[in-house]
Design brief:
Helix content: 25-40%
Shape: globular
Largest sheet: 6 strands, mixed
Distance between the termini: 26 Å
Number of domains: 2
CATH architecture of the largest domain: 3-Layer(aba) Sandwich
Number of strands: 16
Radius of gyration: 19 Å
Structural class: alpha/beta
């Protein structure tokens, strides 16, 4: 969960709320400015077409932030995006696309307009326009099998070990380049596949978004089998991203402003906490 800067920090730590640090926000603003010139021409082309409705989507297997229940996309990311869109009185449609790789391709091709929450990285910035206002602090976290912990203080401690990640994931903060050059990483299509490989000793660690990993472990009643190492791999956040091919980019500034208002009012925290409780209740029902 995220800290929007209201209320005592210690109380928020006890509740497990993740803070969004302003130095991260400032860093993101600097990165965004570097992409303005490169993105200008594609934005202009997109805005020449009409926007009848904002097509919203996200990864179908990233609970409790976003997931597909067989009928529709649900989760905190979807609720935050659609709540903000309603507030600016724009038309929208939530569309199921599939796993993250398909979602990213749909954004690249302009088949969807908006991805509800996504970590900004240089590669993704080539075809997506990221909002400035942070939505979630969802730090990439290292998970290991219980009893197989190792000392971790930084990226170099991962060299020589076998790692795992889910297809389509990028982590930002320079870690992706470090990973390609220095680490041995196996890619699996689903979160459960990675945890199974970890349990069987086929990999030594798994890199996963904190909320997604904790949601899976809760649902599968496997919290006692795995341990999250600290510190986080990188301190990054997720935000709304528009396709550069989208004709609905005209709504980006208004939507960014609205997300900032919702954050300052505590609405983002409320939505996130409610969806975590909802997902926990569903997981407990399945477990019983």
């Amino acid at each position: 969960m995220i800290d929007i800067g209201t209320g005592p920090n210690e109380a928020r730590r006890r509740r497990g709320i993740m803070p969004i640090h302003m130095d991260i926000v400032d860093c993101w603003r600097s990165v965004l400015l570097a992409c303005v010139i490169a993105s200008g021409s594609s934005c202009a082309v997109a805005q020449q077409r009409e926007c009848s409705q904002i097509i919203v989507t996200d990864d179908s297997d990233y609970s409790p932030l976003h997931w597909y229940d067989g009928k529709s996309l649900n989760g905190a990311s979807i609720e935050i995006a659609t709540t903000a869109i309603k507030a600016i009185q724009a038309p929208f449609l939530v569309r199921f696309v599939g796993p993250l790789e398909r979602v990213l391709q749909a954004g690249k091709d302009g088949d969807v307009d908006l991805i509800a929450s996504l970590r900004p990285t240089p590669e993704r910035m080539k075809y997506l326009e990221f909002n400035k206002a942070p939505v979630f602090a969802n730090p990439p976290t290292l998970y290991v099998a219980k009893g197989h912990e190792f000392i971790y203080s930084g990226w170099n401690d991962l060299i020589g070990r076998r790692g795992g990640m889910t297809a389509g994931n990028q982590f930002g903060g320079g870690f992706d380049d470090f990973m390609k050059k220095n680490l041995t990483i196996e890619v699996a299509q689903k979160t459960y596949m990675n945890f199974k490989k970890l349990e069987l000793g086929r990999i030594d660690y798994l890199i996963a978004g904190y909320y997604n990993a904790e949601g899976y472990l809760l649902k599968s009643s496997q919290q006692s089998k795995f341990v999250a190492l600290k510190p986080a791999v990188v301190n990054t956040f997720s935000t709304i991203a528009f396709s550069k091919r989208s004709p609905c980019l005209k709504y980006q500034q208004a939507l960014d402003t609205q997300i900032g208002i919702m954050r300052d009012q505590g609405v983002l925290d409320e939505i996130l906490e409610r969806n975590i409780r909802l997902y926990r209740d569903v997981a407990e029902e399945v477990g019983n």
